[in-house]
Amino acid sequence: MLRNLPIGNDQFQKIREKNAYYADKTLMIKDFIEFQDEVALITRPPHFGKTLNMTMLREFFDITKQSETIFEGLSIMKTEYKDMINTVPVIYFSFKDCCGVKEETLRKMLARELLKEYEHYNKIFDDKLDRNNVYVEIFNRIFVQLKDGTIQFDDLAISMEHLIHMVAEYYQIRPILLIDEYDQPMITSSEHGYYKTLKEFFSIFYGSVLKGNKFLEQALLVGIQQRVKDNILLKLNNVQIYTMSDKKYSSYFGLSEEEARELLTYYGLEFNEEEPEMYEDSLFLGIQRYNPWSVIQYAIKNKPITTVSI
Fold this sequence. Notes:
It is a single chain. Helix 4 packs parallel to helix 6, helix 5 (134-148) packs across helix 6 and helix 6 (153-171) runs parallel beside helix 8. The chain is α/β, with parallel strands linked by helices and 310 residues long. The longest helix is centred in the middle third of the chain and has 23 residues, at 103-125. It has a 5-stranded parallel sheet. Helix content is 41%, strand content 9%.
């Protein structure tokens, strides 16, 4: 039987467990390790595989999981880094749904996402932390405020920093931080006119975590835009930014012509580069790159495939 297409599914674990079609991008893990960026930011257009790659990294490194089965047969397991699977604490946030016309709505959405990781690790800690430790007291206070919905921007701004601290203390291993759609809260605040009000919040929220954090091993952020007015990330001198014009990481987002052709052939469809109404003639770093979502839609509904140019 043919593998199912991952329609509307951008979660690596589910795709692998359901044996859905997957273009192997796992060597991104090798590059992430070898580049050794303290903080990396990758910007890509929508539907270019950002979330799938971030969840892939999470499943590989996360010390709380057992991921050997879902990585079986993939490229990363044929490298010297295969033994690093499930050896590092991972803190993962997705801010793609953190938006709102008003500041209050955004505050609640951010709090909801942070609560997920606080709850996850609080279960693991299971009262094993020293309650007399001032940082443990702060962690517990923030956790209570996240649960009852009373947390305000001041405590929300330091919530990510304290979670990282507690995870590092508990495991005695510095965690990896992954943030999907890091820029969505800034984009929505800019669109609705309250970015200036929250500028200091964003500066502390990201700056306190990413700048000189001795409890953090590495951080990777992905988003749509590099610039949102005076984006505070651009002011941090330890952030390595990879845009669409950078070769590093370029092969892991979107599909090459070979990958798109292989997918369509697998489902009995012809890759016809002579049909201009099906394929936009545009280049990405000199190589045509295809939007995975568009390729899947074409495979399902015979819709045109689109590309992105720079």
